[in-house]
Structure formats: structure tokens, C-alpha cells
Amino acid sequence: QVQLVESGGGSVQAGGSLRLSCAASGRTSSTISMGWFRQAPGKEREFVALVRWNEGSTFYADSVKGRFTVSRINANAKSMLEVLLQMNSLKPEDTAVYYCAAGPYSSSSYTSSNSYPHWGQGTQVTVSS
User: Which of 38, 70, 74, 82 sits CB 3.0–4.6 Å from 49 for a disulfide?
Assistant: First the structure.
């Protein structure tokens, strides 16, 4: 099993910045990618960003491209994996619960929440106008 623990989040005014972190422990040898999804009230969970752990390549939803940055901490780590999501120029529409996810990588389905077997507990991000 892989355990994911998120930290960060909170409330900020539009145009501000927040940073989320996610630490993965357990059987992380099978973790190929780590990413972020978000879910706003009444909406489906949507893909935000992803980093492939071994290659370091990153992927973003169009809605956050240029504003959010996902990165690995200590790319050579073998047991405790950690990723950051730096969120700049935040907008009210970024308000949601943000979830860390981990699992295999698929070029055809990495934006689908169904592709990830491991999830964090979620952290609230609120952006006021």
C-alpha cells in the first residue's frame, strides 16, 4: 500500500499564491507518477497536474497551465516521495478540495481519476475575489 499525506492549502485572495505538498510512503517502488486533482462543490473531480517520478516530465490541465507548477523533491528518493504544487495567480474558480494521487502512468488516461489507486485525504483551497 501507498500512503499519501497532503499539507498546505488555505485561503487567499485572487492573484495570490499557495503551495501544496504531498508525501508518499509505503510501497512507493510501484509509484510511477504523482499528481493532483481537485473537486469543487457540485462538480466532478478534475485533473490538475502530474509529474512522472522517474523521468520528471510534467503535465497540466489547460486551466492551470502557466500558473501552477508541479515538481519533485529529492528525485533520487526511494522510499519517501514528495511532490509540490506551487499555485500562483490564483483565481476564485481554483477554489476546491485538492487531492494528491499516485499510481501508474498512462499516456491515454493520466487525466482520469480512475487511473490512480492511491489518494490523499484532500486539502481545501479557497480563493476569494
Answer: 70
User: What is residue 128's predicted lDDT score, i.e. its pLDDT?
Assistant: 97
- Per-residue pLDDT tens digits for 38-55: 999 999 999 999 999 888
Query: Partners of 52 in the beta sheet?
Result: 33
How far apart CA 13 and CA 61 sit, in angstroms, is 22
**Which contacts of 48-57 are long-range, i.e. CB under 8 A and separated by 24 or more positions?**
48/85, 48/98, 49/85, 50/105, 50/110, 51/83, 52/105, 53/81
For range 89-110, the mean pLDDT: 93
